[in-house]
Amino acid sequence: MNTYTYNNANNPHHEIAEIEKTIKAHIGWAVNNKDKDTLLATVVENEELFFFQPDSKSTIDGINEFLSLIDNFFMIEDFKAIRTEIKNLRVQISPTLKTSWFSCILNDYNEFHGNPAVWENVRWTGVLEKIEGKWKIFQMHFSKAEDLVK
C-alpha cells in the first residue's frame, strides 16, 4: 500500500521537524516568558486565522480577535503559564509539501487569579501552510471528549 501523505508515523519527511517546532512554539510561548513574538511567528497574521475553543462563545475569527485574546488575557499579570504536554502528536504533510495538518492530546497547565486554569486531555487539531519558507497555523480546533467532561 502506498502512503499518499508524508507523516511522522511511517512516511517521514524532514519538514515534519519544522512543523512540530511550530506547533510546540505555538502552545509553549507563554511558558517561555510570554514571548508574544514567538507566538505570532506561528500563525498567519490575517483574517484567515480561525479556531474553535471548547466553548462556543470563544471562537477566534481573524488575527484581530486573536490579538485581543492575547493582550487581554494571556499577557495580563493574573495569567500564569506553568507547563504544557503534547501527547500522541500526529503530523501529516500533503505531497506538495505546502499544507500540513496535525492532531494530538493537549494538557495545558496554567493559573488565573491564583486559581488553576487547566486543560487536560483536550483534543487539539490544526492546519498549517508553508508561507515564505515558514510553517504558519491557519486553523485550529480545541475540544473535549464528552465522556471525559466532568
Tally of helical segments? 3
**Termini distance?**
42 Å
The CATH architecture is Roll
Q: Per DSSP, what share of the residues sits in E-state strands of 2 or more residues?
A: 35-45%
CATH topology: Nuclear Transport Factor 2, Chain: A
Characterize the biggest β-sheet.
7 strands, mixed
Question: What is the helix content?
Answer: 10-25%
* Low-confidence sequence ranges: none
Integer count of domains: 1
> Overall 3D geometry?
globular
What is the tally of beta strands? 7
Q: State the secondary-structure class.
A: alpha+beta
Strand order of the largest sheet: 1-4-5-6-7-2-3
Give the CATH class. Alpha Beta
| SSE run | EHHEEHEEEE
Rg estimate, integer Å: 16 Å
Description of the molecule:
The longest helix has 14 residues, at 15-28. It contains 3 helices and 7 strands, in the order βααββαββββ. The chain has one domain: Nuclear Transport Factor 2, Chain: A (Roll), CATH 3.10.450.50. The mean pLDDT is 95. The protein is an alpha+beta fold and 150 residues long. Strands 1-4-5-6-7-2-3 form a 7-stranded mixed beta sheet. Helices cover 21% and strands 43% of the residues. The protein is globular.
